Amino acid sequence: MTFQQDNPADVLQSPLISVLDSYRMKIANCYFCGEHLKGKKSCEHVFPQWLLDDFDIREEMINATHYSQEGEVKSHRVHNLDNLLAGRICSHCNNGWMSELESQVKSNVLALAEDRKVVVELDQKARFELARWAFKTVLTLNLASNYRKIIPRDHYQWLFEQPNSLPKQVIVLAQQHHFTEPFYWIQSPSWVIQDKQNIINESMVESLYTKSYKIALLFKHLLLLVAYQPFTELYYVIWRGIHVPLFPLKGPLLYHERDDFEWSDSVKSIIQFHGSLFLGTLTESNNGIQADAAELRG
Ligand SMILES: [Zn+2]
Fold first, then answer.
1. Largest CB tally within 10 Å, which of 96, 117, 224, 231?
2. Predicted TM-score of the model (pTM)
3. What is the domain partition of the chain in residue ranges?
4. In the structure, what pLDDT confidence band is assigned to residue 70 with cuts at 50, 70 and 90?
5. C-alpha 6 – ligand 1 centre gap (Å)
C-alpha cells in the first residue's frame, strides 16, 4: 500500500548531466556505476528477499497509484512486492557492493523492524550503515516505481563511489512505532516551510517541487525517512523526540515540538513522520541547534 503525490512539474533532470547524456545512460548504462549494460543487466529487488521472507510479505500486493497535485490519477500499477524490481542495474553492482550493504544491515534492520532493538541505541557506525541502506532502498524504489524520477542522477553515482558519506543536503531519519501494517511507503516532495527571514521566493518553491525528494518507508515497527533539498540557506526542521537522525550526525538542524504522534496506527504514523519534516531559515533566536549523537535520544 502506498501513497504517491506529485505536482505538475516536469520530470527532474540532474543539473550535472545533460539531457543527451541522461538519455544515453538511460538506454545503455548502469544507473549506479555507469557501466554499459549489454549482457550484464540484472534486476535488483527494491526490497530485499530476506526482508520479504522474514515478514512473509512476498505476495503482498502493492497498489501504487500516482496522483497529480490536483488529485487526478496519472498512472496505476498493481503488483506484488516480489515483482518490484529495479532494472538498469548491472550485475557487478547488484552482486557486489549492493549485496554487501544488504549483509551489513540485515540483522539490525530485522531487529529494529521486530522491535528487538531500539533505534536510539544504535552507535554511529550502525546509524550510518542503516542510513546508507535506506538511501539505496529509496533510490532503487524511485527507479522501479511508476512515479516521476525525482532523485538526481548524481545521487546514484555518489552511492556507488562514496562508501563513507551521503550527498550534501541529504538527511536520513528513523523511529519505531507500534505497527498495524507490515509495510508502506510514501513518495512526495511536499514541504512546510518556516521562513522567518522571508527569503523564499516563487522560483525556490518551484525548484523545491522539482529538485527535492522526501521518501518514507515503513517495515513493521521501523519508520525511515530519506530527504533531500538543494538550498544551503534552508535547514531541516525535525520533530524533537520523533525524528531520530541517522545521517548527518553533525551540523545545524532546527527543531519543532508537538506531542500528538500517532504511535499506534501505521498509516497515520508514516504520514505524520513524512509530513512533519519541515524546512526553515535561521533567525537570531533559533540560531540552529547542533545535533550530535549524544543528544539524539530526543
Ligand atoms: Zn553498475
1. 224
2. 0.85
3. 2-295
4. low
5. 29
